[in-house]
Amino acid sequence: MQSGVIPDKSFINEIYTHKLDKLLGLADLRSQFESDSGGNEHLTANWAVVTKWDEQRRYEFWDSLSATSLLDAIGDPTNGVFQWVKQHW
Hints:
Elements: H1 9-15, H2 20-26, H3 30-38, H4 41-50, H5 64-75, H6 81-87
């Protein structure tokens, strides 16, 4: 997207989501993720954990194991979802 250009409203509506799998496609990173995760079972497992979260789950009670699993899947310095996103940001 060019700087100073007002984006299409339908695009803005689509990216206004917490659904990571949808955002992956909108960012045109699906093929890159599939390539990177194809031989990386840890990244694949972390992605599976993180994509189960949605904005409604923030109001639920989380046991310590589930909360730790989510935080680890996001923050793992080698195979974490956040680490992968930062590499392709």
